[in-house]
Specification:
The protein has two domains: 8-148 and 294-315, Rossmann fold (3-Layer(aba) Sandwich), CATH 3.40.50.1400; 152-288, Rossmann fold, CATH 3.40.50. It has eleven helices and eight strands. It has helices at 24-31, 39-53, 58-77, 95-104, 124-138, 152-171, 199-213, 238-247, 265-268, 270-281, 296-315, and strands spanning 8-14, 82-88, 109-114, 141-145, 179-186, 219-224, 252-256, 285-288. The strands form two sheets. The protein has a four-stranded parallel β-sheet with strand order 2-1-3-4, with helices on both faces. Helix 7 links the parallel strand 5 (179-186) and strand 6 (219-224).
Length: 316
C-alpha cells in the first residue's frame, strides 16, 4: 500500500488458506511445521476442498474482503489515518510479510488484530508473538487487540444471525419442533485448561450474551474441528453432541459457530456437510447461521477495537 507514511498501520491477521489446489500440499506442510502430510492425508484435505465448492478457496476471497472492508470503515471514520495490511499464519502473505510491507511503506506505529474474537495463547497468542517479534526487529511500535468477544456490535451481529436462523427453521419441515441452539468453536488441546487459558471462558461468555440478546433459553456449547494428534482435545465434538441430542428427542438444531467469522473449511465442510449428514442420519434437521464475513457491524467491531486499544496512549 502506497502513501502510508504518517499513518497508523493495521496488521489484519488470519489463519490463511491455499490460493489453488496446487498450493494445498505446501499449505498443509506449513501447518505441520515443515513435515509433509502422508499421501492419504493430503488427498483427504483436497477432497474436502473439492466437496465444498469444487476446489475454489472461499476463505482467501473472504479474508481479502474483510481486510478491504475494514480499510473502508476506518477511512470513513478516520480519513487518512490508517492503512491496513494482511498477514496470514500459514499462507502468503505471512504475518512477517505484512509487517515488512509496513516497514517498507514507512509505518512506525501499528496495531495488530486477528480475525478471531476469542483469545488463546495457542491461537491468537501465536499470531501476536510472530507479529511482535518482527515489528521489534524492524523498529515498528505495535500494539495488539487481544480479543473482542463481548463487543456490543459483535453480539448484535450474532444475535441477528441466530434470530434469522431460527426463522428459517420455523418455516421449514421441522417448524413445529423446539430448537436447540448449538454454539461452537474450533477445539484446542485440553491442556489449555491447566494453563488457565481464557479461550473457553470467553466462548461461553459470547454464547451467553448472544443467547440472552436473542431470547434463546435452550442452548449449549460444543466443540468442532479438533486436530488429529495424540493428546486429548476439548470436547464433546459436535458429532457426539448430535448423538446425545438424538437420545433426548431433539429434532431441530441451529448451529452457531461463533468462534469463526468467515465461510471456510471448518464451516462449509465440518458443519454444512459432515455435521448436517450426521444430524440427518439421526433424524435431526440442522441449519447453520450465516457467517459474519464483511457484515458492517463486524467491520465496526474491528475498527472500534483498533481505535480503543490506542486510546490510552493518546491520553498519555
Amino acid at each position: 500500500m502506497s502513501n502510508s507514511k504518517g499513518k497508523i498501520g493495521v496488521l489484519v491477521m488470519s489463519y490463511g488458506t491455499p490460493e489453488s489446489m496446487d498450493d494445498v500440499e505446501a499449505y498443509y506442510t506449513h501447518i505441520r511445521r515443515g513435515n509433509p502430510p502422508a499421501p492419504e492425508q493430503l488427498q483427504e484435505l483436497k477432497d474436502r476442498y473439492v466437496a465444498i465448492v469444487g476446489g475454489v478457496f472461499p476463505l482467501r476471497e473472504n479474508t481479502n474482503g474483510q481486510v478491504a472492508g475494514l480499510q473502508d470503515k476506518l477511512e470513513t471514520l478516520y480519513p487518512g489515518s490508517y492503512a491496513c495490511y494482511q498477514g496470514l499464519k500459514h499462507a502468503r502473505p505471512y504475518i512477517e510479510d505484512g509487517v515488512e510491507a509496513m516497514a517498507r511503506d514507512g509505518i512506525t506505529k501499528a496495531v495488530g488484530i486477528v480475525l478471531a474474537p476469542h483469545y488463546s495463547v495457542m491461537s491468537v497468542g501465536t499470531y501476536i508473538k510472530r507479529a511482535k517479534e518482527k515489528a521489534a526487529e524492524l523498529g515498528i511500535d505495535m500494539d495488539f487487540v487481544e480479543n473482542y468477544h463481548l463487543h456490543p456490535k459483535l453480539v448484535e451481529a450474532l444475535r441477528q444471525r441466530v434470530e434469522d436462523g431460527l426463522s428459517v427453521l420455523a418455516r421449514g419441515e421441522a417448524g413445529s419442533e423446539p430448537v436447540k441452539v448449538l454454539f461452537s468453536a474450533h477445539s484446542l488441546p485440553e491442556r489449555i485448561r491447566e494453563m488457565g487459558d481464557p479461550y473457553e471462558k470467553q466462548l461461553l461468555e459470547t454464547s451467553d450474551a448472544v443467547a440472552k440478546a436473542a431470547n434463546v433459553t435452550d442452548w449449549q456449547f460444543t466443540w468442532q474441528s479438533a486436530g488429529r494428534t495424540r493428546e486429548p482435545w476439548l470436547g464433546p465434538d459436535i458429532l457426539e453432541t448430535l448423538a446425545e441430542l438424538q437420545s433426548q428427542g431433539v429434532k431441530a438444531v441451529l448451529a452457531a459457530p461463533i468462534g469463526f467469522v468467515s465461510d471456510h473449511l471448518e464451516v462449509l465442510y465440518d458443519l454444512d456437510i459432515e455435521a448436517k449428514a450426521e444430524a440427518a442420519k439421526r433424524g435431526i434437521h440442522l441449519e447453520r447461521i450465516a457467517m459474519l464475513n464483511r457484515d458492517p457491524l463486524y467491520m465496526e467491531t474491528l475498527a472500534e477495537s483498533i481505535v480503543d486499544v490506542l486510546a490510552p496512549k493518546r491520553e498519555e
